[in-house]
UniProtKB/TrEMBL annotation, chains A, B:
EC supergroup of this enzyme: hydrolase
Gene Ontology molecular functions: aminopeptidase activity; metal ion binding
Family designation: Belongs to the peptidase M24B family.
Pfam families, sorted: Peptidase_M24
Name the record gives this protein: X-Pro aminopeptidase
Keywords attached to this entry: Aminopeptidase, Hydrolase, Metal-binding, Protease
UniProt domain Peptidase M24: residue ranges: 144-361
Amino acid sequence: MNGLDSAIRDAGAAAYAAYGSSADAGVRYLTRFRTTDPVVYVKKQGERGILVIPQMEHERAVRESSAAVVTRADAGYLEYIKAGEPRWRATAHMIADLAAGPVLVPATFPLALARELESFHPVVLDAAGTVEGMRAVKTQDEIEQIRSVQRATEAAMERGIALIRASRSKGGILHLDDRPLTAEAVRAEMHTFLLARGCRGIDTIVSCGPDTALPHNLGTGPLLENEPIVIDIFPQDELSGYHADMTRTVVKGEPSPAIREMYEAVRDAKALGASEVRAGAVGADLHYAVVEFFRDRGYESNTQGFVHSLGHGVGLEVHEEPSLGPRGGALVAGNVITIEPGLYYPGTGGIRLEDMGAVTETGFDRFTQYTEELII
Amino acid sequence: MNGLDSAIRDAGAAAYAAYGSSADAGVRYLTRFRTTDPVVYVKKQGERGILVIPQMEHERAVRESSAAVVTRADAGYLEYIKAGEPRWRATAHMIADLAAGPVLVPATFPLALARELESFHPVVLDAAGTVEGMRAVKTQDEIEQIRSVQRATEAAMERGIALIRASRSKGGILHLDDRPLTAEAVRAEMHTFLLARGCRGIDTIVSCGPDTALPHNLGTGPLLENEPIVIDIFPQDELSGYHADMTRTVVKGEPSPAIREMYEAVRDAKALGASEVRAGAVGADLHYAVVEFFRDRGYESNTQGFVHSLGHGVGLEVHEEPSLGPRGGALVAGNVITIEPGLYYPGTGGIRLEDMGAVTETGFDRFTQYTEELII
């Protein structure tokens, strides 16, 4: 019995229902159908899940989806609309027909749909996050998909870093072909490269100097000599929907002694974190082990220092279960996670290094092969 | 008083609350903040809306967001977490504190959050879709943003069509530089061009021959001589989040008489639809006028023929209010809409032409300037 069947049974429900576009990772996971317009998914216990789509999407849905495909017309939706029911009501009516009993729904199920559905059957909230839990444990196929995105990502990282490596400083500003080399140019080089590999780079961070002290600063303008440049790239494969995620920090020229020391601490923290990964290890313990490690090296973590979590799951969402943060639980084999310690000090700058890999029974199957060198 | 204030008052609520990442167009509209992780927005009646973000996002949020920015720590969230409340509970608790009374929420508000929030204050569903309604009427600034995406989109269309124009047929298959010219190559050319303009092409349709009979077929493989090629492109500006949307159908070589006639009917249907656009015109009436027009030309609309709506609103979502379909209501000045009639016949092929523009008091301010020529 799969996880969703157990959850339906344990909830005393007849079926599980989800609603959303494929921007909703749960819907994408359950249907394997790409759509910008929302669709309905209903799975009765012990039966194959049903994807309900407009007539226009029928052929593509049959070809792409892992679910059984039914048109809205065949599911009765259009009749309810013709009878004058508003959209949410008609959708709920259709789900009620398909479920034929109490309905288990995910936490993000739309309130409007839940309230209409409640007039037909009880609506039970899946507080345990069953589908998030299923998504967090990757199959071998999913791991291969993610590895493949990671390979494209590392090649893109190399393209970006190659521009920085080839640049020359003029008055402290990096130049390439006699023009200032900007964060935008490095980002565009990587995104264009990724596009040709079928991957979409989104909000890739290329930040430099003072900007690096803010971990989520996208970065803008000319890159500087002797200053840390943080490149954090987390593209999504357009077809499969899976992400990779990696970060490197480099300096063209001479980093300050403070940056050098921070880099060494972060590199060692990453090695420490990775060395403790295995099935059964607790995410919060790993996080606090790194907090502790940084403290021993003289870096306290509060509003400065190590200000984020040690890592997170990666899959159809770039941030998903499990957490390697203060509230992280036990890891299981098949989790795909990042290990990404960082240190951030306004006035000095920031350093982050991030690898990704799979949790195994005995350790960390690191996907990331890309070199670690501060000075390029 | 703005629309949201009226809605809060009319609902007898104290505040409006929304939850989501910027993939949720309502959240993006209200906050103007880009984020892949969900954020909370709360607006009390008559007051400025508040965006609640993690500490790490504080500086960027202050710089980018149109809302007042408060960290989760300052909003009390972290205290509730420390006190052992689960994530949804702590989020609801924080929203309840900020709202200090009944809370109006959008239809897609997460059920888990609504159920927790209900233990503090009544949760009132905004059945009228107030924010969707606000989003449907664009400001002059928004119209300029969308025009700018449309300009990039037309330039991308020209790049794609230029490849087809420059190709030569060998045995019925279009070739460029002695290699078959594929749907993928045309798509990649357009996407790469768009990327350099800061826009992201998503699922651009480049379909040919039999594939064109399915309006949402993405298209794959070599393009064919004498067959319709449908190019439907709806990119999003990465920074502003606004979309454009346009479609052209071309043939390299000699189209069949049936395709020629369909093209003329679709072109005339588009002109008819556009000519009837103005504030006060009813979306459903426009749709059915085109259905009627096609019928007069001998094209019945059922599972073949004109199988989709005449058009839709475009903005932060590529499909949004208002609808120019069977259930479309009255248009208002400031709506940005598409007019996109199409005809689809398995065995013959499909034709679609799509323009975009703004509804004015007196007509249709068409943004699309791109030429209409079937044979290239």
